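job 3f2a | input accepted
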Amino acid sequence: MAKFVYRMQNILNLKEKLESQEKIAFSVANARLLEEQQKLSELMIRRNGYEMQLKEMTEGSLNIRDIKNCKEAINTMKSLIRDQLMEIQKAQREVEICRKRLDEVMKDRKTHEKLREKAFENFKQEILAEESKETDQLVSFTYHNKQ
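job 3f2a | predicted structure (147 res):
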């Protein structure tokens, strides 16, 4: 029996490799986004700590220098948080870009898989037609030999 050979199998293999590379790139970008979000939450926790510390300083005996330092620390944390929010936006854009590339590569791979399936169906139809033809020839030969 004939063996099915897809003539564009090497292209399909290449599409699968590209898809796996894009999956890796997407997971790296996603991991970076999670890391940046974690940094933001740590900065916010630190800012909240400074704010609580400032509140405690204003309730007891007043030390102007400590209060001023604490306010500067809070302002610095706000600036760092703003910067971190911009980093998160960059990471989100990168994740979206990677997601779009991954979707595109997946569509290409699926298209080639569908082409392979259609080629396989055509191959099966050709085999059935060939077998039917051989059967008809055999029956015809047998019938003519009896007469």
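job 3f2a | Residues 16-104 form one domain.
job 3f2a | closed
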